[in-house]
Amino acid sequence: MTGFEVLRVFCGPNGSHGNALGVVRDGAAVPGRADRQRVARELGFSETVFVDDPERGEIDIYTPSVRLPFAGHPCVGAAWLLGVDRLVTAAGEVAVRREGGLIRIEARPEWAPGRTLRPYGSAAEVEALEVPPPGEWVYAWAWQDEAAGTVRARAFPGRGDGIDEDEATGAAALLLAAHLGRALTITQGRGSRLLAGPRPGGLVEVGGRVVRDPRPDQPAGGVGSA
């Protein structure tokens, strides 16, 4: 029986909200891509991580419908859980650092999956948006306070796989920080908090707070389970 853990990544300052992440620590128990895709689909999280080597930080990332070479919230969550100073993804090595109870990762913007960054005139406009029909992956954002670098955002994957709105999206935050060329504090979804900003060498950092979800460990997606 293969179990999984659930983390909430990019929580608010008091540990609330955050995007749920499924983590299968024993990746060897689900070795094939087709089986991993099936497990990710059955679990239904926006992303599920399979840990292939916990000491090296080697991970494999899936949405319910596709495999991703890199994604922000899975990397931040996996780094917190494994306690490593780097991760190895299909896109490349991801540096990790810890500061004040936060986990931060560095990655290249070109690793991030395609996102449409759609600006709005006010935070109220972003908050009033309805979920669009399936189509392009949209990251809707507006300045809350441009001088302070605070942003209100919502994310609509548009994949038609049951994830209508993503609570906290590290890759999109990374792309927005790269696009604007400055440090940002982003409030996304119901109240998740993401920090992002440029780093030397063309890298961008994204980070936040991670907590373990209190729900008990469960068998993963029917792998060896009833």
Tally the structural domains. 2
Distance between the termini: 9 Å
Helix content: 10-25%
CATH fold category name of the largest domain: Diaminopimelate Epimerase, Chain A, domain 1
Mean pLDDT score, rounded? 92
Describe this structure in words.
With 226 residues, the chain is an alpha+beta fold. The protein folds into two domains: 3-98 and 210-219, Roll (Diaminopimelate Epimerase, Chain A, domain 1), CATH 3.10.310.10; 111-209, Diaminopimelate Epimerase, Chain A, domain 1. It is 17% helix and 38% strand. The protein has helices at residues 33-43, 72-82, 123-127, 170-180; strands spanning 3-11, 19-24, 48-53, 58-62, 67-68, 86-88, 93-99, 102-107, 116-119, 138-145, 150-156, 184-188, 192-198, 204-212, 218-219. It has a 15-stranded mixed β-sheet that branches. Helix 2 crosses helix 4 (170-180). The model is unreliable at 216-226 (pLDDT under 50). This is PhzF family phenazine biosynthesis protein. Pfam families: PhzC-PhzF. The active site is at residue 47.
